[in-house]
Amino acid sequence: MVDIDGKVIELSKQYFPEISKAMLEDNPKLTVTVGDGIAFMRQAENYYDVIIVDCSDPVGPGEGLFTYDFYKDTFKALKDDGIFVQQTESPFMHGKLVKDVFDCVSDIFPIARLYTAFIPLYPSGMHCFTMGSKKYDPLQWTPNRKRTFPTRYYNEGIQQSAFVLPNFVKDLLYGKADR
């Protein structure tokens, strides 16, 4: 995990221990780095299975996390079957950003998908996530694979429905479709 602000990490441990459990227990699968995520990605090559970018809005220091060069760096940092996911704001309020990020990721990764989730804390409730994959297509997912851990929210219906986009989001990404 990379965060530019070490204070955020410390406050997360203090006030959100239930979601900071891996950091609190010194989980060997987690390395916490305080630093610039953009510079960090620039240095990595063929190392990560999955990169999840949960960043601030695309202003100020977070702006560089929404650029073509950053997505090229994440591609380079992933192993041959790696997957990249980034939260990409609300399609209601940031349609141009959603489209621009999707276009960048589509240009760089062999497989690019957009999915949505409803997150009541965000304006409009509907939030987009852009995924780039070197090998795996979530639309070709097979429900026969057994999960090795219990989930409270996720199930195969959620997997399938997340990638079903409303018409206005399809129009945003691909242009006005014939309906």
Describe this structure in words.
This protein has helices spanning 6-15, 21-24, 37-43, 68-77, 95-108, 156-162, 167-174; strands spanning 2-3, 33-34, 48-53, 78-87, 111-118, 126-133. The protein has 2 domains: 1-35, no CATH class; 46-174, Rossmann fold. Helices cover 34% and strands 20% of the residues. The chain is built from 7 helices and 6 strands; from the N terminus they run βααβαβαβαββαα. It has 179 residues and is α/β, with parallel strands linked by helices. Helix 3 (37-43) packs across helix 4 and helix 4 crosses helix 5. The strands form 2 sheets. The protein has a 4-stranded mixed beta sheet. Strands 1-2 form a two-stranded parallel ribbon. A hairpin with a 7-residue loop joins strand 5 and strand 6 (126-133). The mean pLDDT is 90.
Give a concise summary.
With 179 residues, this protein is α/β, with parallel strands linked by helices. It has helices at residues 6-15, 21-24, 37-43, 68-77, 95-108, 156-162, 167-174, and strands spanning 2-3, 33-34, 48-53, 78-87, 111-118, 126-133.
Main features:
two-stranded parallel sheet, 7 helices, 34% helix, single chain, 179 residues, Rossmann fold, alpha/beta
List the helices and strands and how they pair.
Layout: E1 2-3, H1 6-15, H2 21-24, E2 33-34, H3 37-43, E3 48-53, H4 68-77, E4 78-87, H5 95-108, E5 111-118, E6 126-133, H6 156-162, H7 167-174
Parallel strand pairs: 1-2, 3-4
Antiparallel strand pairs: 4-6, 5-6
Helix pairs in contact: 3-4, 4-5
